[in-house]
Amino acid sequence: MRCHDIEYEILGSEIQLVEITLDPGETAVAEAGAMTYMEQDIGFDTRMGDGSDPDQGVMGKLFSAGKRLFTGESIFTTHFTNNGDVKRKVAFAAPYPGNVVALDMAKIGQRIVCQKDAFLCAALGTKIDITFNRRLGSGLFGGEGFILQSLEGDGMAFIQAGGTVIEKSLSGETLRVDTGCLVGFSGDIDYRIERAGGLKSMVFGGEGLFLATLSGTGRVWLQSLPFSRMADRILAAAPQGGGNDKGESSLFS
């Protein structure tokens, strides 16, 4: 199935959203809860499956939904369709501060692999699936990198990333990154988990015990502020008084 040919505009600077323009009859697929606003004539329908295979039976949809449920994702996606006679817009945003990355799948090999929570929305016809890293080491030590998401199609797809997004092009080279900073990579990049140096570096280096190693030729997308890292800093800075902290005014209480 060929993807719908949608138009889009990314709005904002550091906390972005993507505004998609749908021609009459066109549809965009998004993660549940990602919609920010939609114009009149846009209808939405929650479905089991991504709609990339119209002939997929009930069992196939249940199998796909089961894989998403296993990874903690919603088993449903939401389909937004322009039911009117003129172009209409619908917008989607990430649930945390960051940027939206627009991917022209036809120009990057029609397949990318990304972190399981990176997908935001795409043109109808994009296949959204779960893939598991084949290396045992990646499964035991890779954290989020063990369960990955694959996007396949020839249209536009959009992924979300925390902080600043960096795109790196590899040409037979190797890149080592923090596992949480990896957003996605083109399908022909080899991905594995390796130790972060010697024992001293692993214990005292502060960079984690393991790093993601990407090799080959293709594109890699990185994020400067993984949501997990931001959440850890917030929790670490939170008051530890167990409810006894009276706040800033407690000095005069």
What does this structure look like?
With 253 residues, the protein is mainly β. The chain has one domain (7-237): Double-stranded beta-helix. It is built from 4 helices and 17 strands. It has helices spanning 58-70, 136-141, 199-204, 227-237; strands at residues 7-11, 17-22, 27-31, 35-38, 42-48, 76-82, 88-93, 98-104, 111-115, 119-123, 127-132, 147-152, 156-162, 165-178, 182-186, 190-195, 210-223. The strands form 3 sheets. Strands 9, 11, 12, 14, 15, 16 and 17 form a 7-stranded antiparallel beta sheet that branches. A 6-stranded antiparallel beta sheet has the order 5-6-3-10-13-8. The protein is globular and about 55 Å long. The termini are far apart.
Query: In the CATH hierarchy, what is the superfamily?
Result: Mitochondrial biogenesis AIM24
| Poorly predicted regions | 136-144, 248-253
Structural class: mainly beta
Order of helices and strands: EEEEEHEEEEEEHEEEEEHEH
Number of beta strands: 17
Given this structure, which CATH class is correct? Alpha Beta
Work out the strand percent: over 45%
Task: Itemize the secondary structure elements and their pairings.
Blueprint: E1 7-11, E2 17-22, E3 27-31, E4 35-38, E5 42-48, H1 58-70, E6 76-82, E7 88-93, E8 98-104, E9 111-115, E10 119-123, E11 127-132, H2 136-141, E12 147-152, E13 156-162, E14 165-178, E15 182-186, E16 190-195, H3 199-204, E17 210-223, H4 227-237
